[in-house]
Amino acid sequence: MSNKDSKNYFSSDFKLGILGGGQLGKMLLYETRKFDIYTKVLEASEDVPSKIACDEFILGDLMDFDAVYNFGKQVDVLTIEIENINLDALEKLEDEGVKVYPPSKTLRTIQNKARQKLFYLDNNLPTAEFSRFAYASEIKDSVDNGGLAFPFVWKAAQFGYDGQGVKVVRNFSDLDDLPKGECIAEKMIPFKNELAVIVVRNPSGDVVTYPVVEMEFHPEANQVEYVICPARINEEVAQKATEIALQVSEKMQHIGILAVEMFQTHDDKILINEVAPRPHNSGHYSIEASYTNQFEQHIRAMLDLPLGSTASKVAGIMVNLVGAEGYSGDVVYENMEAILKLEGVTPHIYGKKQTRPFRKMGHVTIVNKDIAVARRIAQQVKETIKVISK
Amino acid sequence: MSNKDSKNYFSSDFKLGILGGGQLGKMLLYETRKFDIYTKVLEASEDVPSKIACDEFILGDLMDFDAVYNFGKQVDVLTIEIENINLDALEKLEDEGVKVYPPSKTLRTIQNKARQKLFYLDNNLPTAEFSRFAYASEIKDSVDNGGLAFPFVWKAAQFGYDGQGVKVVRNFSDLDDLPKGECIAEKMIPFKNELAVIVVRNPSGDVVTYPVVEMEFHPEANQVEYVICPARINEEVAQKATEIALQVSEKMQHIGILAVEMFQTHDDKILINEVAPRPHNSGHYSIEASYTNQFEQHIRAMLDLPLGSTASKVAGIMVNLVGAEGYSGDVVYENMEAILKLEGVTPHIYGKKQTRPFRKMGHVTIVNKDIAVARRIAQQVKETIKVISK
């Protein structure tokens, strides 16, 4: 089966494998149906969203060499929906002709945050200053001898996810409870905006970028409240951010979706924060707002099909649905009816049965021809719906 | 479980049942994921599109009383994706408190084309003149004694689908091969446009309508080539068509989606052709073009949730993908890459493994801010992609 013969993608011969059975995989699986692609999913637990959306579901540990290798041998193209995967297995599969997107090399660079930062440095890509430490205990010495000054951001080099593995360190006592392993200490960047650009690249080398999106933070809680497309920034900053995102993609020779998160500093510098080599939260708005959503685009890229238009039909804003503080247990979505009454509102409930504080339970997209109207309705959504327990 | 308590729709307690496992059901199932609704499907064969998109798949004959009744007892809301269902079972389920949408009464009216036509007559709803015959053999007598004149359209009263069970009769020899059973003979209506309006009604009585769409025919082959939204007709005709569609929905006290197909005559009269009480081919464009697509809308209606906006983000045109003449066997979608290069093009491949001439294998939606551009691209799509066999 050659990847040149696109007809195979629409026949039962072709098989797409997805490593990970979570919500991102599920949203990707919906889009495979448009193309009638045969899909297989590998995941350690049966109790995951993708279970009912794929053709075949295989139980196995994503960090286990044999599980990943044996699964990969059964498919033509292999993708991921989570970064923590056995990379040795991916490399062997690539050597044996399986198309792995993102390539294992991209994942090798990204899986370890210290290595990711060094990659930016080596390639003259702008990012916040940092120091790397093999052990967290070395940080104290560095502060003591003047190599590092409070405040800074501690980040675990590996296995951080959604705010875990990240901590603002303002004094010595903040260092006390840190995990011991490899980490980086990053200069704290006061920023005006957090931006993201999704770049998509296929094996033929075609590249497209989505419009720059903006993460709007809660003024006090310092939590992302809204992802807004297009970002409300000037054209020059948007071009600069897009240009840097393109450079990252090119230097990585990445294939598929690459979401590049960046800071816009107060003097309009752009610094790369981190990247995700897969469909990303910052692109969920695209399901409702874009001509080609990020999941369909990822499929087009992996299959070396022509990439679709990344333009927006309408402005889009995404609100994450997270478990409310003080509630744990069987989830209830309070005031769902009220938000469904608002114009252009689409909920995406991920199907997790149990809520707990700040757990990501779903998202809501708000689309409108007028971005200011969308922003007003998004605020109503945010203030109305509550993810609580029974 | 009461249908007043909307919270249940988003918990594992609530179950939605779908009678029929075809492509319409599959597209409906995709949308249930947004709401994390537990779904069960009843279908006689395992080899159907819905198989991999539902939580539970039950084998059973849709015309069998026990199969439908036993299935219906296991769900809270029951819907259909095909009209030929055992209605006695649906009636008993309704008597026992299961919410059946569309109601069995709607299906009773629609299943039989003679009864459907009489319904329009009884309710002063405009439709083409017709005569009903208990046996096709009676048609000849009627022509002989001047009660009926050539040409006319013969339609089987029951079990016609997609052009089957319909024939233009121009002379006595055309009558020779007709099936024997109950039928109607309908006056042939020369028309300017074939239009359709989708009406949606929920149990609380909220009603919305989608914009009028237009079916554009091939000038020679007399086959629908494009479904175009919005229809290129004047406002007055659009209002008249919408008004008549609303009347049908109200008289039927229908719940869920009702697609009303109509003729616009050369003197701008509107005549009802037929209705479908479910998501419909004429609404497929809504997946890409509308704020709320017809499948999500059907779910909102059945669950008595607020109905969503039926407005369009952009103009939408749908092209049906049917098997090319002269090809039967394992399907190949020729020139798929070429159409994916065009702007705003989304294919929907239904996953049928075998093609045969005129078999419906999928559809393609083309969206654009400018309907004239969309129409041009739609024509390129139509002229480029070919559904052939290996």
From TrEMBL, chains A, B:
It is an enzyme of class 6 (ligase). One of its GO terms (biological process) is 'de novo' IMP biosynthetic process. InterPro entries: ATP-grasp, ATP-grasp_carboxylate-amine, ATP_grasp_subdomain_1, PreATP-grasp_dom_sf, PurK, PurK_C, PurT/PurK_preATP-grasp, Rudment_hybrid_motif. Pfam families: ATP-grasp, PurK_C, RS_preATP-grasp-like. Residues 117-303 form the ATP-grasp domain. ATP binds at residues 113, 155, 186-189, 194, 273-274. One of its GO terms (molecular function) is metal ion binding. Its EC number is 6.3.4.18. GO terms for cellular component: cytosol. It catalyses: 5-amino-1-(5-phospho-beta-D-ribosyl)imidazole + hydrogencarbonate + ATP = 5-carboxyamino-1-(5-phospho-D-ribosyl)imidazole + ADP + phosphate + 2 H(+). Belongs to the PurK/PurT family. Catalyzes the ATP-dependent conversion of 5-aminoimidazole ribonucleotide (AIR) and HCO(3)- to N5-carboxyaminoimidazole ribonucleotide (N5-CAIR). This is N5-carboxyaminoimidazole ribonucleotide synthase. It comes from Cellulophaga algicola (strain DSM 14237 / IC166 / ACAM 630). The gene is purK.
